Amino acid sequence: MGAGPAGIYAADILAKSGLDVSIDLFERLPAPYGLVRYGVAPDHPRIKQIIIALYKILQRGDINLIGNVDVGRDISVEELQRHYDAVIFSTGSDRDAPLNIPGTDLPGSYGAANFVSWYDGHPDVPRTWPLDAREVAVLGVGNVALDVARMLAKHVEDLMVTEIPPNVAAGLAASPVTDVHIFGRRGPAQAKFTPLELRELGKVPDVDIVVYDEDFVFDEGSEEAIRASNQTKQVVKTLMDFTLKDPAERTASRRIHLHFLHRPVEILGSDRVEGIRTERTELVGDGTVRGTGQFVDTPVQAVYRAVGYFGSPVPGLPFDETSGTIPNTEGRVLGDDGEYLPGVYATGWIKRGPVGLIGSTKSDAQQTIAHLVEDARAGLLHARDEAAVGHDAMLAALEAAGVRFTTWHGWELLDAYERQLGAASDGVPRDRIKVVHRDTMTAISRGEEHDGQLV
Question: Dihedrals φ, ψ of 88, to 5°?
């Protein structure tokens, strides 16, 4: 369940496991690829090259993609267990992790995950976004924070070579933003940016990067982190390079400010966001920080909370509200009694939380599938309903329930349609223009007539 990288890798590994298997890969959206399609900023096509690898896996034909099917809405966990010997959940982390400070519920305070879904054309989010702030705060020092800051600060004409949907382009074009402030509670050596993302930030046209000398403090723990990790070393070097730029050379119309050793403590405002209050922190020797009691108020009219992703419960399965994961041991899902649920598995972020990159996702899937194969050979999978088993029976059940599911052939139709839109676009031809409207996506995928509504 879930056709992002985690689900596709798990299906691929299972297909090559030596078991005699028939694999159906379900996805709640009409299109596959998960966060690679809906979580990577449109101006990062190199990262999206992972889609080529995922495409080749699904194109083989030994994994059946069934899209536009939502567990809990269209089908239940119990129904899945009637049809399949084993069910693997790879539903990911699809919402923002909580940030428990005063003011998060003020108008103008947003979760970064929702904003990312908007600018990536996710079909289940509103078509407009309130881009009315001149000064913005982004809380967090990971790649999502960089993506959010860059997308806010970048001039829309520099995005028109990407797959950005037309409603997103129109929204960004009207934004009055001039300054975006990124806040991190620890020091530069503890930032979670990847070097490539950070270097690219410094190359955005007509956007200056502003850093502050007083934020560049390194304790023994920071020095050890730099020695131990080449990635940390590169990140720190890039940040230090930003400090060398002459302030007189900052002539851009927009700015991204990087603030370290600032712990957000309150979002300020009465009826809407008016500022962000941070407490200055200091490193204590091991790379961690403590508060100094010195507070700084920065005027902003919007705040984006980029402090991590969080999983959502799967109806019919246990859920850990603290970690945002399905309780499991190395991918074997645990029931409320702490015992294994026969034939039920998890992989990806819904298994381990939103940490790690694509490589981690693949190794994570290998661990889960190894246990599934072991259980299958030991006869430990759950007993399915022999009268209603497998792919054809599943499709018949979905048809009978009136579910407008999509298939791999349907994705190829939608993929071709989006590429045609990109090739026919005004100005520079693009790889694709995303279709955002869910009904249009579904109709194109099913070969049905549609009104061409893109957003």
Answer: -110, 125
Is the pLDDT assigned to residue 213 strictly greater than 80?
Answer: yes
Check residue 425 and give its pLDDT: 75
Q: How far apart are CA 355 and CA 91, in angstroms?
A: 14
Distance CA 9, CA 32 (A): 13
Burial of 455 (0-12, 13-18, 19+ CB in 10 A): middle
β-bridge pairing 289-299 and 275-283: antiparallel
Whether 384 shows a pLDDT value over 80: the answer reads: no
How far apart are the C-alpha atoms of 45 and 26, rounded to whole Å? 26
Taking residues 333-353, what's their average pLDDT? 95
Average pLDDT over residues 1-22: 96
For tokens 């996805």, name the residue: 27
Residues 148 and 304: beta-carbon distance below 8 Å? yes
What is the C-alpha separation between 192 and 140, in angstroms, rounded?
Answer: 9
Q: What domains does the chain contain, in order, with CATH numbers?
A: 5-94+312-403 (3.40.50.720), 98-305 (3.50.50.60)
Q: Which 3 state secondary structure label does DSSP give 396?
A: helix
pTM, 2 dp: 0.93
pLDDT per residue as tens digits for the range 47-70:
778 899 999 999 999 999 999 999
3-state secondary structure of 55: helix
| Helices assigned H by DSSP within 133-217 | 143-153, 166-173, 195-201
CA dist 101 → 88, 106, 149, 237, 271 (Å): 36, 11, 21, 32, 17
List CB contacts of 374: < 8 A, sequence separation 6 or more: none
Q: Are 391 and 24 in contact (CB under 8 A)?
A: yes
CA separation for the pair 125, 380 (Å, rounded): 41
Q: How many residues does the chain have?
A: 455
Residue 318 has pLDDT above 90, yes or no: yes
Instruction: Label the pairing between strands 309-311 and 93-96.
Output: antiparallel
Phi, psi (degrees; rounded to nearest 5) at 26: -90, 150
Contact 303, 273 (CB under 8 A): yes
Tracing tokens 């962000």 back to the chain, one arrives at 276
Q: Do the beta carbons of residue 261 and residue 219 sit within 8 Å? A: no
Strands 332-334 and 340-346: antiparallel
Residue 192: partners with Cβ closer than 8 Å, 6 or more residues away? 141, 142, 143
CB of 186 within 8 A of CB of 162? no
CB 267 within 8 A of CB 103: yes
Longest dimension (CA), the chain: 76
Q: Give me the pLDDT at residue 343, please.
A: 96
Backbone angles phi, psi at 277, to 5 degrees: -105, 130
CB 138 within 8 A of CB 149: yes
